[in-house]
């Protein structure tokens, strides 16, 4: 079964999600050009789904190893990369031209976060079952693409640039007492473009043909997101906090914890086996 969870996020603080371009020394918001009927080609700042997915993946994987009482620093570096970043397809002398279907089945069964998020282990490609949408601002430019439950929001009548501004951070000069009279101050001001507090984003998740354990793993991931509800950059200095709601309700995480408790030894043995192959 394919399940779609549609909802919204509201910025409680400034949100910065940087793009590849800069205006002088000021990082600007990531944006994309869209064609909008009645407006023509417009540029829409947004939050990329891959950034949201990457944050959730890292939280879920860290939680998985915490519940296993396993120190992630002991992982084979390549296996660490598989879990936290998705890995990269590669072949060894033992695996050239060989697809180990039994190993793939065991990985899906024993590593539910990988079954949900996907990854590449050696020459084994584990297809993930989770899709994560881009988060687009609720605004006039994007109004034709919004679901019915958001079309009555007052933000729909505002252009997207009503929800952006510039903010800045500073680093103070703690070395002033030790500086020579003619020495330049060690101080920095960083300007950056941001979404303002109160910006609302349309967002969604899709799970495809998940079993009960994978649903529970997704539920646990969203519990972790509620515990650390931040998107974009500069969260360490107050940016990125959001409030979010989705429908339908997320699955219970109960079977996720039960599976780890019942299969801890088997999971650890498979970790050692897979790590030895990389």
Describe this structure in words.
With 278 residues, this protein is an alpha+beta fold. It has one domain. The protein is built from 6 helices and 13 strands. Strands 1, 8, 9, 12 and 13 form a 5-stranded antiparallel beta sheet that branches. β4 (31-36) and β5 (40-45) form a beta hairpin. α1 (49-67) packs across α5 and α5 crosses α6 (254-277). The radius of gyration is 22 Å and the shape is globular. The mean pLDDT is 88.
Summarize the structure.
With 278 residues, the chain is an alpha+beta fold. It has helices at 49-67, 77-85, 101-110, 112-117, 212-227, 254-277, and strands spanning 2-11, 18-23, 26-29, 31-36, 40-45, 119-121, 124-126, 130-132, 136-137, 164-171, 188-195, 200-208, 242-247.
Output the keywords.
two-stranded antiparallel ribbon; 27% strand; 13 strands; alpha+beta; 278 residues; 5-stranded antiparallel beta sheet
Total strand segments: 13
- Euclidean distance between termini CA atoms: 34 Å
* Percent helix range: 25-40%
Strand content: 25-35%
Rg (CA only): 22 Å
Uncertain segments are: none
Q: If you average the pLDDT, what whole number results?
A: 88
Global shape: globular
Overall structural class, as computed from helix and strand content, comes to alpha+beta
Biggest β-sheet strands, sense, barrel: 5 strands, antiparallel
